[in-house]
């Protein structure tokens, strides 16, 4: 009986800290890929000074590209459609609203036109 309580306590702590089991990959400065409950599916998060992870792009993020030191581009596939999120790194912080740090949300053709006009030639790093 007296061994059951510590084992049960450890189990409860282990379950409640499930976030500790999710994989976190630092990709650039305060940006991390965080594994969701579905293994090997990642979202893009911003890490605050308080070590909170604030979601910027929901899963599944399948690739990313950093343009210079000012733009973070995340590639996401939803319902067999590719969309691109462009985040202004210099405007992003823990308290920023999406309309402040988001440069754009583009579908495939729109992104190609936008990146061409900005002279950006993205080579995406696959998320695996």
Short description:
Helix content is 21%, strand content 41%. It is of the alpha+beta class and 128 residues long.
Question: What's the helix and strand layout?
Answer:
Layout: H1 4-16, E1 24-28, E2 31-35, E3 42-47, E4 53-57, E5 61-67, E6 71-78, E7 81-88, H2 98-101, E8 102-107, H3 108-117, E9 125-126
Antiparallel strand pairs: 1-2, 2-3, 3-4, 5-6, 5-9, 6-7, 7-8
How would you portray this structure in words?
With 128 residues, this protein is an alpha+beta fold. Helices cover 21% and strands 41% of the residues. It is built from three helices and nine strands. It has helices at residues 4-16, 98-101, 108-117, and strands at 24-28, 31-35, 42-47, 53-57, 61-67, 71-78, 81-88, 102-107, 125-126. Strands 8-7-6-5-9 form a five-stranded antiparallel β-sheet. It has a four-stranded antiparallel β-sheet with strand order 1-2-3-4, with no helix packed on it.
Salient structural properties:
about 20% helix, about 130 residues, alpha+beta, 5-stranded antiparallel β-sheet
Number of strands: 9
Query: What fraction strand?
Result: 35-45%
- Please mark out the parts with pLDDT under 50 across 5 or more consecutive residues, or reply none: 5-18
Silhouette: globular
Classification by helices and strands: alpha+beta
Count of discrete alpha- or pi-helical segments spanning 4 or more residues = 3
Our measurement of the CA-to-CA distance between the termini, rounded to an integer number of angstroms, reads: 44 Å
Mean pLDDT: 84
Question: Which series of helices and strands comes N to C?
Answer: HEEEEEEEHEHE
Strand order of the largest sheet: 8-7-6-5-9
- How helix-rich are the residues, as a percent range? 10-25%
Roughly how many Å is the radius of gyration? 18 Å
Biggest sheet descriptor: 5 strands, antiparallel
